[in-house]
Model the fold of this input.
Amino acid sequence: MAGSAELIRRARLAAGLTQRQLAERADKAVSVIGRWERGEVLPSLETVIDLISAAGLRLQVGIVDELEHDRGLIAESLALTPQQRLVRVTKLANMVLAGRERMGGTLRA
Done:
């Protein structure tokens, strides 16, 4: 889930606004917008909604069953043959190893 800093920044960028432009629209100081976007100060939910609205967007909130996604992944995995699962896991392991190599890290057991 996105935090308030990310929501504010995303809304501003989606609207094509600078921090100054958003500040003017929301009647806030530019420095405050910057601190909110950097997560240095936590605005209230009402303020986040107001800023998103000032960017010409709206915040949509809902309740999500976090396990539903996991259930879907489990069902998808169970539908695969053992060979298909092995191929999938091998690709994932290779991707992780390649990422670690690019970052100069090593894999430890």
In short: Helices lie at 4-14, 19-26, 30-37, 45-54, 66-78, 82-102. The mean pLDDT is 91. The longest helix spans residues 82-102.
